[in-house]
Write a structure and sequence with these properties.
mainly alpha; 139 residues; 5 helices; 76% helix
């Protein structure tokens, strides 16, 4: 009976080792380079997806509320998302409200995107500095 449960536990441990979203703990060894590169690519893809969704929200808002065409909506949304500020001044009250809320959202989104994108690098650096030495070195 106990053997069946051990197999499940081993599978869970293996799944945890493969997971790219779970960072290793202090007592665990550094992630091998191929897995680290996969983790970095996944983080970059998540960051790019968040940028695309944020741009889409801005483009839809500017198109619907200010009547800007697709290119002008993209330009305005990307300038606000990058922190440069709008090129087109909103003329309607709903457009002004959207522009203000989108600017506030963009500031937080940039911080979240940067955190998600660079977390694997920062974690690897901190883990390398604080990881416990291997037992083979201490023997």
């Amino acid at each position: 009976m106990q053997g069946a449960f051990e197999g499940k536990d081993e599978m869970k441990k293996k799944d945890r080792k493969i997971s790219l979203l779970r960072f290793e703990r202090k007592h665990e060894p550094l992630l091998p380079w191929p897995a680290f590169v996969r983790r970095m690519l996944l983080s970059a893809l998540v960051g790019l997806a968040m940028i695309a969704v944020s741009l889409l929200i801005g483009m839809i808002g500017y198109h619907a509320l200010e009547g800007l065409d697709a290119m002008d909506s993209f330009l305005n949304a990307s300038m606000i998302l990058s922190g440069m500020g709008p090129l087109w001044s909103p003329r309607t009250e709903p457009g002004k409200l959207f522009a203000g809320l989108y600017a506030l959202y963009s500031g937080l989104a940039v911080l979240a995107i940067a955190g998600i994108t660079f977390a694997p690098m920062v974690h690897r650096l901190l883990h390398a500095l604080h990881a416990e030495p291997d037992n083979a070195e201490n023997s």
